[in-house]
Amino acid sequence: MFCEYCGRNIINSKCACVKSTRIRKVEAILLYMLVYLFPLTAIVFFYKQSPILVVSFSMSFLIIIISTIGFLLDKPYLALLFYCHQKINRTIFLFSNPLPICARCTGILLGIFTLPIICLVFEHIPWYLFLISSLPIILDGFIQLKYKKPSNNFKRLITGFFFGFTLIYLLTIYNELIIYVAVYITTII
Description:
Elements (H helix, E strand, L loop, with lengths): L24 H21 L5 H23 L3 H6 L10 E2 L2 E2 L4 H19 L5 H6 L2 H13 L5 H36 L1
Antiparallel strand pairs: 1-2
Helix pairs in contact: 1-2, 1-7, 2-4, 2-7, 4-7, 6-7
């Protein structure tokens, strides 16, 4: 028997995809609040470090925590975090078992986990390299849309990997903007 939403095998009359598992709105709101507030507090506490390094480490740590809680509670929090469709034909299989997220989200996850190591090796990474790293995912989407050429899981994994760098960079800019606004508001009050 297969899930009508994602196409995965249903084990014990239950599928582990986001659409067939009940996740309350409170759980989703708390999950997204963690994602937006945790790196922000990490930047404030480790203000002498590079913001990209702090955000990439904190997001890697947060993803491990969210994955563990999701595993223990049997909830697809990782797929919810990435807003993943979890389609079985776009999922990478590991030891004959599908991963809980699609190939592109797996690539993004690997990019997020790799970025702290890259930041430790190269102390200063120019900002434009993070924006250039989003070009593969843009080109892949454009080629699919314009020429009706379907992508494959390897392309999805690679484009997601490089987009993971851009995602952390955008999250860092977001967090620094919030800190700047908060400091500005406290100076006028």
